[in-house]
Amino acid sequence: MSKKVAKTNALRILDSKKTSYDMYEYDISDELIDGKSVCEKLGISELESLKTLVAHGKGNAIYVFVVSINSELDLKKAANICGEKKIEMLAVKDLLGITGYIRGGCSPIGMKKLYPTFIDIEVKDLETIYVSGGRKGLSIGISPGDLANIVNGKFGDIVKKE
Known about the structure:
Blueprint: H1 9-16, E1 22-25, H2 35-42, E2 50-56, E3 62-68, H3 75-82, E4 88-89, H4 92-99, E5 117-120, E6 129-132, E7 138-142, H5 144-151, E8 154-156
Parallel strand pairs: 3-5, 5-8
Antiparallel strand pairs: 1-7, 2-3, 2-4, 6-7
Pfam families: tRNA_edit
Family: Belongs to the prolyl-tRNA editing family. YbaK/EbsC subfamily.
Keywords: Lyase, Protein biosynthesis
């Protein structure tokens, strides 16, 4: 008998919108939840595996950026795409209160509010990308277009180039 997976906000939203996705659970007992370790556990590339980064601009403006784990967010490009002069990464201590998620389990889907979300243009044409399912040890495989539709996301050039 298979064990039932507790639904996260991300999974509930995908189900309610009848969006196609695959769910992948992985062992976190070794406490290795960094992007590279997750890729190894799931057998996926670092380009396909995305991290969710949360930043703030002037005032209380919150922005979400979804980039491959092997990429680095370019804060100048990110500020520009948001129409801000400058943005800063959100402190980890503020993540739960603002998003409803913790570090290592922050999904771009199902945050407390639907914040402006930007997805790296480099993953737009991939068949499947993998994002957090809303808790440590859970990833979601989804098409980039479906992710953008669910979070009202926009694709853009937001990462540093080597």
